[in-house]
Each structure stands twice: as structure tokens, then as C-alpha cells.
Amino acid sequence: MPEATRTLGEPPLLEVNGLVKYFPLTSGVIARRVVGQVHAVDGVNLVLNRGETLGLVGESGCGKSTVAKLLMGLEKPTAGQILFHGDDVSKMGRRQLKNYRRRVQIIFQDPYSSLNPRMTVGDIVAEGWDVHADIVPK
């Protein structure tokens, strides 16, 4: 396993500062209105250097999947900052975000929550090919 390394002056691989995600709590069927907030993630900080691996462990409902989705750019944070090689993930354009997602990997523990039951196996496999279109054989 490679040893975690960081060259002097080089930013961390991943840096998270004050990450917050609140989801609106709504009421009403026709006239939906926000009546509160669910605090899914509140104040996550971490630094990950090249060669390091991060595992999120915790009780059900504590925000692990939400943090993972935030780190992948699949959810927008309510507050806080996610930096990859010093670049703010929330400010990345579509092409930059696609490149970022190629370099970051998340493995969810429960395959039933990470695989879409409405997609065929072929569609699920092809989704990976879409991300890595530059290396897929024609």
C-alpha cells in the first residue's frame, strides 16, 4: 500500500471545511411550504493526502451517505467548502466535475441503495462507460 505523501507547498488531495447540508422539511400536498430543516450534516472537517484512504463509519441515519454524495458533487452543500487539489468542487464546471468524478471513488456498503432497480444491468455498466468514454473500445 502506498504511503501517504504530501510535498511541501502542495495542497492536500482533499480538504473539507465546515461542510453543512440541511434538507427542507415541507408540509402540505398542494401548497407545499417549508416548515423546518433536517440537519443531515453539520460541520464536517477533514484533510486527505495523496495515498490515504477514507472510510466513513457510523450509525444508520448519521449522514454518511450524504457526506459521500457531497464529496462526489452529487448534492450541493448548504455551507462549507470541498477542495480537491485546492480547487473548490462547488465551483467546478461540467467538464471539470466529470474529470473530478473520474478520479474519486466511492463504494457504498449496501448495493440495494447504490444500484437503481429501474435500470438494467446493461444500463448500469454503460453508465461507467459514459464517464470513461475516452478509454472505452469502440
Describe this structure in words.
- The protein is built from four helices and four strands, in the order ββαββααα.
- The chain has helices at 64-72, 94-103, 111-114, 121-131; strands at residues 14-27, 33-48, 79-84, 87-88.
- By secondary structure, it is α+β, with helices and mostly antiparallel strands.
- It has one domain (14-112): Rossmann fold.
- The longest helix is centred in the last third of the chain and has 11 residues, at 121-131.
- Helices cover 25% and strands 28% of the residues.
- Strands 2-1-3-4 form a four-stranded antiparallel sheet, with helices on one face.
Secondary-structure blueprint:
Blueprint: E1 14-27, E2 33-48, H1 64-72, E3 79-84, E4 87-88, H2 94-103, H3 111-114, H4 121-131
Antiparallel strand pairs: 1-2, 1-3, 3-4
